[in-house]
TrEMBL record:
TM annotation in the entry: none
Domain of life: Bacteria
Xref: SUPFAM superfamilies: Periplasmic binding protein-like II
Keyword Methyltransferase: no
PANTHER family: ARABINOSE-BINDING PROTEIN-RELATED
Signal peptide region: 1-20
Organism expressing this protein natively: Paenibacillus algorifonticola
A matching Pfam family: SBP_bac_1
Name under which the protein is recorded: Raffinose/stachyose/melibiose transport system substrate-binding protein
Keywords: Signal
Amino acid sequence: MKKKLWKSALSAALITTLLAGCGSNSGTATDNGGETTGEGGAKTVKLKMFIAQPRLKESYDKYIAQFVAKEKAEKNIDVQVQLEMPTADTAPQILKTRLASNDAPDVFAVHAINEIPSFYKAGYLEDLSGQPFVDKLLDSVKPSVTTTDGKIVAVPMETLSWGYIYNKKIFKDLSLTPPTTLTEMKAVIAKLKENNIAPFLLSYKEAWIPQLFLPLAVGALSNTTNKDFVEKMNKDEGSFSDMKSMFEVIDLVNQNGTDKAMELGGDDGSAAFASGKAAMWVQGPWFAESILKANADMDFGVAPLPINDDPNATMINLSTSTSLVVSKNSANKEVALDFVNYVLDDKDSNAFYEELKFNPVAKNHSFTTYPWVEDAMTYVKEGKSYLDPSIPQAVKDESGKALQSYYAGQLSQDGVIAALDKAWKSFNKVNK
């Protein structure tokens, strides 16, 4: 469904309060940082959470309710949870404002690759190394939530294997296979157009979506022809002019996509893709739940996006994104730590992760992975993958806005490059 801009802004203030037991403040004896003591010695704790995944609100609400019941039963703590779920576009700025004003949520979501390094350096993150969930983490996942000095500071939620998603039925009906080069992609596009099928779904209303081109291009090129790109950018010695070839695939997608791109966001895009409006979408499987909700019979796959005509550069992006951390300054640290451990609870987390349609991240996860995960892992097993490049979040945010302007014809390729170079240099200046 299409949403007005003011509704997007209001979604940043979405608050869900879950009460356990009576949750009453009657008979309160003390008040300490959101914690009160009531009759019978029961504590009432107000726990603030910040997770920018509003499309998954129902699942989080249910799991949080289970946690609230568990805390009451096992510790006689009445937990009142305020869950704030802004959109991905508005979340970074809201969170930065909270942190800068000493109003940090007790538990909040960060992007493991992009945000943990700078947030940890700034002193915002609690060291979770000694928590019970740590020993449950898969060895392949643990490094993504570990700092350079060996501290584990987050519980991973989403691990991702992505490139673009494609409609398997359309590909099968036309005897198409995922292309391994840009030339092959052009042939696939031609075949789709011959059959009056839009090759790509475009949904650029939310800036984080066109931003996806950045990690895909940088990841592919920095693992083949530009191996020192990130290192040079971190030293103020590089430029995105070295990555100018990324516009080949960006232009190819934009020129062969659906119209009204600036009117569609992630939710609308999921519904459009589920209805067969286009054969491919430069997007990750994190929208699987939304796509299948719109069309339970949808058969889609994941494949690596060709960047150029070198098949060695056509690789799957492997990443840990949404991860939950505990604020270093939380006044309710005991309960916050209980929650992040409950996220990987031996009894309940299997059903939670499966419902979210996330990949297994822990040794106690035994649910069956999804077909699109198996698609991506086929490439990974063949050595055709790379770890998500470490691009500052500020640069990714800038790329989203710049690529929206580029699509609209308001910014040239050189203008995009200049904006990205400036954003990275500004990041370096602040984070030296």
